[in-house]
Design goal:
Number of strands: 18
Strand order of the largest sheet: 6-7-5-8-9-4-10
Helix content: 25-40%
Oligomer: single chain
Number of domains: 2
Structural class: alpha/beta
Number of helices: 15
Largest sheet: 7 strands, parallel
CATH topology of the largest domain: Rossmann fold
Length: 519
């Protein structure tokens, strides 16, 4: 897939829709003091002034590259799915799901991707990206049949959770046009995945490392792939997958279609755009996870000796909360502390097997667990319906991590609050991070017993009665059905209040662990 033509780039000031581009956002230094992890990193705005109740937001992120110039004009956006030239079974499935009006990124990209144009799209998770690329991918392969081990379409994602979410979201549509899906990720039986590919799968959803392993074993070839999607490309670059992604893209069929979607467009993603996208249409309809008008941002300044109590009070709130820590050991330690204080808490991190992580998410979705203590493994690709609070116990490493953590709330038009607990020695770094994220958050000095803490987060005093959560049992790696090709299961979800907007979709039972179509 080494394309001779390269995308032409423009000066950032010539494309106002994408917002101004400026480089060099500092990430700040790290210093100690975090209670449940090894990193700190945050602080208050240097001005020290309070902002409006919603937390004012600046226009765009720093450090992003100038977008490529589109030589061939893009087709206009549509107002309804019915206006698109898609197979009737796909339109009928959308109708059955209660989806009639596309989200902006779907309305803008689908007219172009359906005719085979390359696309560069910026949009946060929850903006409807999965259907934006998924419907085009399925429509363009409808009626085709893959040979064993030679898929026709490839979706590359950075994490197992996102792979499962994409598979769950696309399954009813793939079934409608009789296309077979295979999910290829680490942490599952590679033999079962090889068998699924051997039976034939038109569409493969994969993480780069596991797909590379299967190719090296001779279980998969990419020379028949004519539609390729890179989802959350910036995270794949951040996780060090860029060399693997490049090697994989070099193996797909010449002249194919490439769609690249990313929450942020930094200079690592720029390398992929320049090399693999040919005259792409460019859409930036939902720039960042933190520019959502329904999302509030708060920096709560706490004292070291009171931070544990603040965390316990917030975790005891009525309703669910995701709380981010730096390390898996810190997450496990905090869960033990919270359980002893009467909080129904569980940990989600990379030290858990995939079946354990899936069950933990299902417990959280069903309310059996109310405080999900997570590392950055949950910062992308996880959607929990109705989640209205995210708490950074340990400030994230940089503004991109902040934005992706924040994106777990205020999804699909709902409101949400993002709280970061800031120790005195973290204030300067957090100030720099907010500048890089183009945010002007609300700030307050709080104590665990303060009414202001309760007002912002719903914090309340823990019961003090220890509770026990039945831990998910580790299963043999091959038992999760998502590891193989999807069958004819017709799983239907219940519509949410925003179900008539695609991407605001229905929560799914079982293996999807509450993941919805809004991805």
């Amino acid at each position: 897939m080494n394309r001779s033509s390269r995308s032409t780039y423009q000066n950032s000031s010539s494309r106002s829709a994408a917002g101004p581009r400026s480089g060099g956002a500092g990430h700040g230094s790290r210093s100690g003091g975090a209670s449940y992890g090894t990193r700190s990193g945050a602080g208050q705005r240097s001005s020290g002034s309070s902002s409006s109740s919603a937390g004012r937001q600046r226009p765009a992120l720093q450090g992003e590259f100038a977008l490529p110039v589109t030589v061939t004009p893009a087709l206009p956006a549509v107002a309804a799915f019915a206006e698109l030239d898609m197979p009737k079974p796909l339109l009928a499935t959308l109708s059955r799901q209660g989806l009639t009006t596309p989200f902006p990124i779907q309305a803008a990209t689908l007219p172009n991707t359906l005719v085979g144009r390359d696309v560069l799209g910026r949009g946060r998770t929850g903006s409807g990206k999965t259907l934006a690329f998924g419907l085009a991918l399925l429509a363009r392969n409808a009626g085709k049949r893959a040979e064993p081990g030679r898929p026709l379409a490839l979706v590359l994602v950075p994490t197992r959770e996102l792979a499962q979410q994409v598979t769950d979201a696309l399954t009813p549509y793939a079934q409608a046009v009789r296309l077979r899906l295979a999910t290829v990720v680490g942490g599952m039986s590679i033999n079962r995945q090889a068998a699924a590919l051997g039976r034939g799968a038109e569409v493969v959803v994969a993480t780069p490392g596991r797909l590379k392993d299967l190719i090296q074993r001779g279980d998969c070839r990419l020379d028949a792939v004519t539609v390729t999607v890179l989802d959350e490309a910036d995270q794949m670059a951040d996780m060090g997958f860029l060399p693997q992604v490049t090697q994989l893209l070099d193996q797909v069929a010449e002249g194919g279609q490439t769609m690249l979607f990313s929450a942020t467009l930094d200079r690592n993603v720029d390398k992929l755009v320049r090399r693999f996208l040919n005259d792409p249409t460019v859409h930036s309809v939902d720039p960042t996870a933190a520019t959502v008008s329904t999302m509030e941002h708060h920096l709560l300044h706490v004292q070291t000796e009171d931070k544990s109590a603040v965390v316990a009070h917030i975790a005891s709130r009525e309703g669910g909360v995701i709380m981010f820590t730096d390390t898996k050991h810190g997450a496990d330690r905090l869960v033990r502390d919270l359980l002893a204080k009467g909080v129904r808490a569980a940990a989600l991190h990379g030290g858990k097997s995939q079946p354990q992580r899936t069950r933990t998410l299902e417990q959280f979705r069903q309310g059996h667990v109310t405080a999900l203590i997570a590392t950055n493994v949950a910062a992308r690709g996880i959607h929990i319906d109705g989640l209205d609070l995210v708490v950074n116990i340990d400030p994230p490493a940089d503004h991109k991590d902040y934005l992706h953590r924040s994106g777990r709330t205020a999804r699909a038009g709902e409101s949400g609050t993002v709280v970061t607990l800031v120790l005195p020695n973290q204030r300067r770094d957090m100030s720099r991070m907010m500048l890089a994220a183009q945010l002007d958050p609300n700030m307050a000095n709080v104590h665990s017993a303060d009414q202001e803490l309760a007002r912002i987060t719903g914090a309340r005093v823990p019961t003090g009665r220890p509770v026990v959560i039945t831990l998910p049992v580790a299963e043999p790696a091959g038992r999760n059905p998502a590891a193989g090709a999807s069958r004819g299961r017709n799983r239907r979800g219940s519509s949410s209040s925003s179900s008539r907007r695609s991407g605001g979709g229905s929560s799914r039972q079982g293996a999807s662990a509450g993941l919805s179509l809004a991805v």
